[in-house]
Amino acid sequence: MIRSLWTSASGMHAQQLSIDVIANNLANVNTTGFKHSRTNFQDLLYQNLREVGSETSQTGTQVPVGVQIGHGVKAAAVGKDFTQGSPVATSQDPLNTDLMVLGQGFFQVRLPNGDTAYTRDGSFKIDKDGNMVTADGYPLIGGEIALNPTTHTGISIGANGSIGLVTNQGGTNITTAGQIELARFVNPAGLVAVGNNLFKESVASGGATTGLPDQDGMGALKQHYLEQSNVSMVTEMVDMITTQRAYEMASKGIRTADDMMGLVASLKR
Hints:
Blueprint: H1 2-27, E1 37-43, E2 46-50, E3 67-70, E4 73-80, E5 87-89, E6 99-102, E7 107-110, E8 116-119, E9 125-126, E10 132-133, E11 154-157, E12 162-166, E13 174-179, E14 182-184, E15 192-195, E16 198-200, E17 209-211, E18 220-223, E19 225-227, H2 233-265
Antiparallel strand pairs: 1-4, 2-3, 5-19, 6-18, 7-8, 9-10, 11-12, 12-13, 14-17, 15-16
Helix pairs in contact: 1-2
């Protein structure tokens, strides 16, 4: 009887974690480049009341099926799904530096401590020195272009990551100013999310492999576009309903076990 209480409680803990993950996915449905998370579960240890294949004392034959009692469930992993998000067009301003990766690959940005972080958020801005930076001011590696608004009328970024500065109104006079490289990982799900749309590599993700966009399996760049999150609101709402129902059923298991113990306690009056 007590076992069922703890088994049901483990189910409630697991479903609580699942609903937290779903809530975070829905909260970031409009976050540029966000990748939705998925919760994976595993069953807990089993108590073997009768071993499979054990011999019976009467005839010496082996039992084909044993008796195993499980002890509930646990959350084994919360992993990111890095499938491509939908493109959304932004401003066609000649100085607009919004970028999208069409395919695999991450932008590389330099953190204040000198470390490299990775992101799918291509909503870059121009800082006071004329260089491409994130919304938090972290410089894009390869985006040190020194844009001068008095002499440059536009920015042209090719699918291969080459950055050109336009110096005439017709857009025909372009000088090369920088080259963006992308990074990819053997196991992107092993990246560590650190907030602000940034990831850091880990032992699980493996080291970064860098290369030019639109080459060697790296995704191509698309200027004046951003990548939407890959969160499906319909899928998340369905998952929320099933998670809520699973939580309710686990709570009913606790209530049922309590009612049964109450019946036993009331036998002697």
